[in-house]
Design a protein that fits this description.
The protein is built from nine helices and seven strands. It has 229 residues and is an alpha/beta fold. The chain has a domain of 150 residues: Vaccinia Virus protein VP39 (Rossmann fold, 3-Layer(aba) Sandwich), CATH 3.40.50. A seven-stranded mixed beta sheet has the order 3-2-1-4-5-7-6, with helices on both faces. Strand 4, helix 4 and strand 5 form a beta-alpha-beta unit. The N and C termini lie far apart (40 Å). The mean pLDDT is 90.
């Protein structure tokens, strides 16, 4: 949300792409943005959207066009990994088309090169979450975004998932909060996260979340992608 506040003025049009369960959409609405929420299957969460006075637009990003233009910002968080990689370049191009010149894209996606993904692979365990189609490295994400006609404003590895996605309902805001969780609930997952945190804090590229802020600067450079099968 901080990135949206930094790059989009209150009252401007913000697209929430892959929006269900519309929690982000509602938060943006309360921050006084004009929110347009797109999702492939909005019906199960309509009550949440309607409670914030948001009318979702049903849209399959892989096959449908974004029927809007001139938006100021596009929020594309935790969606890229759920899409077939063959369609990702064209989807990013659609987002470019939906934004006005100088509009911003805020994107987050899991880091396939994170410490936890590497550890799972070394143990012979599938590193991808079962609902993810593909996860990416930072360099792959940046290349795709640049090819889609954006300039990179900021790109970094966030530590938020390394301290927040823990096996507990207790709030965790920092490392000491994580230690308190381990003391109260010393599960294997919590212990592993506590041990891993100093490493990912020291080496950002091993963190679990990629964050990119980009600005629309030109038309997309869509490249032909060879598809087998």
């Amino acid at each position: 949300m901080r990135s949206v506040e930094e790059h989009c003025r209150p009252g401007s049009v913000v697209l929430d792409l892959g929006a269900q369960p519309f929690i982000v959409s509602c938060a943006l609405k309360r921050m006084r943005y004009e929110v347009v929420a797109f999702d492939v299957d909005p019906e199960p969460y309509l009550k949440i959207a309607e409670s914030c006075d948001i009318k979702p637009v049903k849209c399959d990003l892989e096959t449908d066009e974004l029927d809007i233009g001139g938006a100021d910002c596009a929020v594309f968080t935790e969606v890229l990994e759920h899409l077939h990689y063959y369609y990702v370049p064209s989807i990013l191009a659609k987002i470019n088309k939906a934004l006005k010149p100088g509009g911003h894209l805020i994107l987050t996606t899991p880091n396939i090169a994170s410490l936890f993904r590497r550890a799972r692979l070394l143990l012979g365990i599938q590193p991808l979450y079962r609902y993810h189609v593909r996860e990416y490295t930072m360099s792959e994400v940046l290349t795709m975004i640049k090819d889609a006609g954006f300039d990179i404003v900021r790109a970094y590895f966030s530590v938020v998932n390394d301290i927040s996605l823990v096996d507990t309902e207790l709030p965790v805001l920092n490392y000491w909060g994580l230690i308190k969780v381990v003391v109260k609930k010393p599960t294997k997952l919590n212990l592993l996260r506590a041990l891993a945190y100093p490493v990912v804090k020291l080496i950002p590229s091993l963190r679990q979340l990629i964050v990119v802020v980009a600005v629309k600067s030109r038309k997309p450079e869509i490249k032909a992608v060879e598809r087998w099968g």
